[in-house]
Amino acid sequence: MRRLGSVQQKIPCVFLTDVKEEQSRKRDCQQFQVVATETLNPLALEADIDCALATEKLDGTCCYVTDYKGQPYLWARLDRKPSKQAEKRFKKYQYSHKSCKGFTWNIEEDFKTVPETWIPAHRVKHHNGHPVPDEHGHIPGWVPVEKDNKQYCWHSSVVDYEARAALVLRPSSDDEDVLEIAAVPLADLREQTLELIGTNVNGNPYGLGSKKLPVHCLVSHGSIRIQSPLPVDFHQLCSWFQESPEGQVEGIVWHCNDGTLVKVHRHHLGLRWPDGDTYLANRPVVVRVDGADDIYDNTKNLFKPYFALNGHSFSRLQDVQFES
Hints:
Structural class: alpha+beta
Order of helices and strands: EEHEEEHEEEEHEEEEEHEEEHE
Pfam family, one: RLIG1
Catalytic activity: ATP + (ribonucleotide)n-3'-hydroxyl + 5'-phospho-(ribonucleotide)m = (ribonucleotide)n+m + AMP + diphosphate
Shape: globular
Radius of gyration: 20 Å
Helix content: 10-25%
Number of helices: 5
GO molecular function: ATP binding; RNA ligase (ATP) activity
Protein name: RNA ligase 1
Largest sheet: 6 strands, antiparallel
Strand content: 25-35%
Organism: Parambassis ranga (Indian glassy fish)
């Protein structure tokens, strides 16, 4: 199977974009919005977008699996951001020059501190040994998810470092139309990026679990294919998002043969998200978290609750509920 791209940086839009001075549909505090034009991005054309694999863009928080303390670990996304003073200077420059090109950062002084364990994302540029911010003034990066770190408690709920496994939602090996939630060895996920989705992530657009009994899982980027792919055409995509049940997704990410990733978000097309029931939440799912009774003895993660549901099938992902 094709090696899918790893989401280490912000993914560009498949269309060229324009900035409109009106309230963002995506961020309440943003007084402008980025919208797609009808012109294909030259980057997508160069990467042969017509031969790319179309996959569902998931609405959660980005994670990464790589080694830490001599074994594969789950890492949480943590972008290093500028201090308030530096950000004010950056925005003032952007406003007056209508561009961020030419702005000079003081890398050692302009950015907030990050934990010692922080690492920059792949392909972050460096200058004089220091990572350089992107055009948004951020330095993308990662921190390891320690099991006792309350800030990342929902990340911790889907990994068991003693069992060296993670709880992953993926297409079933028996039937790709059916999803499965499985305990997957972390070693099998090494160097992959994944999306953490669930009750306490990004407003829970998929309607999973409840406050009392939260449901979370990881989804490998690129693993949920668009089952009926369509041409990369502005008008056809607009119609698909609005009229097709399969179009009830946050967006599409195309994985090109050369490793290039491009996307389109519903907000790029002036469409709401979420907008009613989501396609993912309405797909059938089976739980396959098996093993010996004493494998998952950590009461702080979700392995035991999923283990109790092993073999159970649900007509909708949204129907997965744990026993109280």
